[in-house]
Amino acid sequence: MLRAIASGRALLLSALLWRLAAAGNPGLPTAVNITWSSINFKTILQWQPKPSGYFYTVEIHGQASDTKKKCILTAETECDVTDVLRNVEETYTAHILSVMSSEVDNFEEPPFAVSEKFTPYSQTVLGKPEIQNYTQKGSKLNVVFQDPLTPYTFPNGSFKSIRDIFQHDLEYKLYYWKDQSSGKKDATTKGDRFEISVDSTKNYCFYVQGIIPSRRENRDGQESTVLCTSVGRSLLDEYGAEVFIIIAVIAIAVITFAIVLSVILCKRKKAKAAREKEPLNGV
């Protein structure tokens, strides 16, 4: 009989603890506006509001991996979760727990907010390629660029590039146009350089951009710095026809003013000379 009573009390206590765990701490605010910000697989989780009197702890849940904790008891509203997303093709969600620093009770689950799903392979933004060299010789424009690097490394410690991860899914586009013109053309490569035919008498501006054609969203990466060639650059190319027209008008005005002034001075001089001779004629 006593054993049955003790067993019943144990079951009642377990049920009470389970309810406490499910209830958590309803008095603490939970995170809102949770966003994933990821460039070249460096991924930052951000949220609001700034905590006051409590802290946050981030849990990363993968579809096929164990839960990992990051930024434990942080008073910040962002967390670098790059190192726990190494399986870039897996889909993750983040649980942002609102906790008190004194909470050490394993039975109670704190209140938390859940982020949207995030898959690094299909959602990270491609960063800016770095243009290493470019030349315009005759009718050929050559551009050599470098893949952006990721935070992930090979066993030897060298950093992986986005090409190492995306491989054949990655393409690059070169957008180019005649200097002082707005009409763009483009070329595509899966390599790290372009060679295109151009007008040898014109200078060209251009930039390079990474692309993942298989994506439905975030297909286009960030644009590299715009650069321009300067082979055979004339003053007309440099400053434009408008400047030369203005200079010509000013020059004509100055010449006209000088001529008019010279005529006026010459007439005054002759008139003065004539007046000086008049008394002599009257003697």
In brief, what are we looking at here?
With 283 residues, this protein is an alpha+beta fold.
Account of the 3D structure:
The structure is a single chain. The longest helix has 42 residues, at 241-282. Helix content is 28%, strand content 35%. Strands 12, 13, 15, 16 and 17 form a 5-stranded antiparallel beta sheet that branches. The protein has helices at 2-23, 120-123, 162-166, 235-239, 241-282; strands at residues 32-39, 42-48, 55-62, 68-74, 78-80, 92-99, 112-114, 130-137, 140-146, 149-153, 159-161, 171-178, 185-189, 193-197, 204-211, 220-223, 227-228. The radius of gyration is 37 Å and the shape is elongated. The termini are far apart. The protein is an alpha+beta fold. It contains 5 helices and 17 strands.
Number of strands: 17
Supply the number of helical segments: 5
- Work out the helicity level: 25-40%
Contiguous low-pLDDT stretches (5 residues minimum) are 1-8, 10-24
SS class? alpha+beta
Helix-strand pattern: HEEEEEEEHEEEEHEEEEEEHH
Compute the gyration radius: what is it?
37 Å
Overall pLDDT score: 85
Question: What would the keywords be for this entry?
Answer:
alpha+beta, disordered N terminus, four-stranded antiparallel beta sheet, five-stranded antiparallel beta sheet, 17 strands, 283 residues
